[in-house]
Design goal:
The chain is α/β, with parallel strands linked by helices. It folds into two domains: 166 residues, Aspartate Aminotransferase, domain 1 (Alpha-Beta Complex); 222 residues, 3-Layer(aba) Sandwich (Aspartate Aminotransferase, domain 2). Helix content is 41%, strand content 13%. It has 15 helices and 14 strands. The strands form four sheets. A seven-stranded mixed sheet has the order 2-8-7-6-5-3-4, with helices on both faces. Helix 8 links the parallel strand 5 and strand 6. Helix 3 runs antiparallel to helix 10 and helix 7 packs parallel to helix 8. It is globular, with a radius of gyration of 21 Å. The termini are far apart.
Length: 407
């Protein structure tokens, strides 16, 4: 009764590691949740108040999303990007993940995925019956593909339509794509399209964030939402920003939305207007300062001859590679780490790497973000002593992982 290609799919590894970690904790084990990545911070109070004030909103909203919300997003994004977007360029979904899934269903072409890629891109492509072309990236290029690597794929069949996913800052590596200019030139040359997953863009540690949309906006669909910068992952509100020349895709996304989720929760859409109309710079800068400080602590204390790792540039992930470890697969290695140290990591194979590369994703968010924020200010230097007080599991988990890597 179940289609064969569906039978081969597994539940999302990011959600599974969260449930596994919670189960081990409930059994009395001390677990360091470095596997599941979600914002440790509380949703800004003004946005929470707006949700409370709009709890009475019980009507179905337009398929494309609440007009006032789309207007607020268009103004917000236009200011950020230096491009003019209108409400007609925006479509609201129950998380950007759902919109990506619908895009995979309607897209007629091939998907190009850099390795590493977020765990759901490939399964969604499989469900959408799209062929995947993988590009193995290198740490020296921040784990992003070069223009030549992309072009080598396209040259094999120039007649096909190609959609490449670029996620910067990246999940799982925490790195930023720095060669966007050279990649963007392929858009005009081959009519290449981009899905720019910018869900972590507000959490870039330096203030010079650029996406592929800054270079070729007419070929780029931007995907983002509230989950990371706003700490509202469980609210499930994401959105696409599509250029006007891709209005046919916008129309078809509306059709698919009407046949799947109908519309996003009304109170959350009304509350999200406040997320885009109000000023949250201090909150965002405070979040970034804490994440940058904690991420740099883990990086500085974990890097060694035994652990190869890039310094984090945004979001809340690191991608350590454990050398000289004798395991058959990265999954086997992560199971061993969890059993011996209590540190939960995700294997690199979940993100497209070959099983025999000892890579793992590490999320440095296992701390009480609300408490950390209350006891620091947004622009202060956060030293080891403060991390020890307000993120003790990060300190202990990192030390356990370091000791394990040296044995």
């Amino acid at each position: 009764m179940i289609k064969d290609f569906i039978k081969n799919l597994k539940p999302s590894s990011t959600l599974l590691i969260n449930e596994k970690s919670n189960k081990l904790e409930s059994e009395g084990k001390k677990i360091f949740k470095f596997g599941f990545g979600q914002s440790p911070f509380k949703v800004p109070q003004k946005i929470i108040d707006e949700l409370k004030n709009n709890a009475h909103q019980n009507k179905y909203l337009p398929m494309q999303g609440l007009e006032d919300l789309r207007i607020s997003i268009a103004k917000y994004i236009s200011k950020k990007k230096g491009q003019e977007y209108s409400s007609s360029n925006i479509i609201i979904g129950p998380g950007s993940k759902e919109l990506m899934f619908l895009l995979q269903i309607l897209f007629d072409g091939e998907i190009i995925l850099p390795t590493p890629s977020w765990v759901s891109y490939a399964p969604q492509a499989i469900i959408g019956r799209n062929k995947i072309k993988w590009i193995e990236t290198k740490s020296e290029n921040n784990w992003f593909p070069t223009a030549k690597e992309i072009e080598d794929i396209i040259k094999k069949d120039k007649k096909k339509k190609y959609l490449i996913f670029l996620n910067s800052p990246n999940n799982p590596s925490g790195q930023i794509c720095t060669n966007l200019d050279e990649i963007s030139k392929l858009a005009k040359k081959y009519n290449l399209f981009f899905l720019s997953d910018e869900i972590y863009s507000e959490l870039t540690f330096e203030d010079n964030y650029k996406s592929i949309s800054n270079y070729c906006p007419q070929n780029t669909i931007i995907s983002t939402g509230l989950s990371k910068w706003c700490g509202a992952g469980g609210w499930r509100l994401g959105y696409f920003i599509l250029p006007s020349n891709l209005s046919e895709i916008t129309s078809q996304l509306k059709v698919l939305a009407s046949e799947t989720f109908s519309s996003v929760s009304s109170p959350i859409q009304y509350a999200a207007i406040a997320a885009h109309n109000n000023e949250h710079a201090d909150y965002i800068n405070h979040s970034k300062n804490i994440l940058k400080s904690v991420g740099n602590y883990v990086y500085e204390n974990l890097k060694s001859n035994n652990v190869l790792i890039n310094k984090p540039q945004g979001g809340f992930y690191l991608l350590p590679e454990f050398v000289n470890k004798k395991f058959s697969t990265s999954s086997e290695m992560c199971n061993s780490i969890l059993k011996e140290t209590g540190v939960a990591l995700l294997p690199g194979s979940d993100f497209g790497f070959s099983q025999n590369r000892m890579l793992a994703r590490l999320s440095f968010t296992d701390f009480d973000g609300e408490n950390f924020m209350k006891n620091t200010v947004h622009n202060e230097e956060i030293n080891y002593d403060k991390i020890k007080i307000y993120a003790p599991k990060i300190i202990e988990g990192t030390n356990r992982l370091k000791d394990w890597s040296n044995n």
